[in-house]
Amino acid sequence: MELFDLSGRVAVITGGNGGLGLGMARGLVKAGANVAIWARNADKNAKALLELKSIGNGEVKAISCDVSQDAQIEDAMGATLGAFGRVDACFANAGISGAGTAIPDITEEGWDHTMAVNARGPALTYKHVTRHMIERAKNGDAGGKLIVTSSAQAIMGVNRSTDYAASKAAVTALTRGAAFELARHQITANALLFGFYETEITAKADPRFAEWIERRIPLRRFGDHAGLEGLAVFLASPHSDYITGQSLPVDGGLSIS
Prior knowledge:
This protein is an alpha/beta fold. It has helices at residues 19-30, 42-55, 70-84, 108-138, 162-182, 200-203, 207-216, 225-236, and strands at residues 10-14, 34-39, 60-64, 89-92, 144-151, 187-194, 246-250.
């Protein structure tokens, strides 16, 4: 058995049809895992499916799902179990950039929409995934991995981004609570506080913001998508079994600058 062979394991990745999620999916399928992508955009789902099937040994399914809707998550979980029979790792990655408003201009609608996707989405995803993991544990098959995409903004300030920052801080708290509550079932929970990666979300940002961030990053470069592959494989593998409740910055040192 290879050190990081994930053959026979099943991973769910919400928002796995692009950006950080697709980067992580690439690593998982290359390591032999079966992967279920839950995402909304049918065209992007189809494109990601073709790519992932061409680069790995694991099976891949793309399932339409809006993580702000509990019923759609429940259906996606049912479809995943119907296809693969189990889920060993869940990457709650789906997210949006936020309303981009200054504090005096916050609206109920903007705030609630950001929270619905970025904070409530991971919680509801965990709800359905852990029901399955706990049932497996009761039948003598304990264990599971929960990994959420957070942000360096959870621990640092950025102008006109309070709703986004608050949503990402919320999932770091979710991580600690989940790690404590679910440890009895050998389920671990961790958060990845990503810095600046070139994605569809960051492409919408003011170019001056990207320049300002790059100057603040000690390593003086944006995140490397290829590096996401090994990170995901490690966190989905048994070699990370003793890591739980942690919020790990993956930001080139941005959060310490």
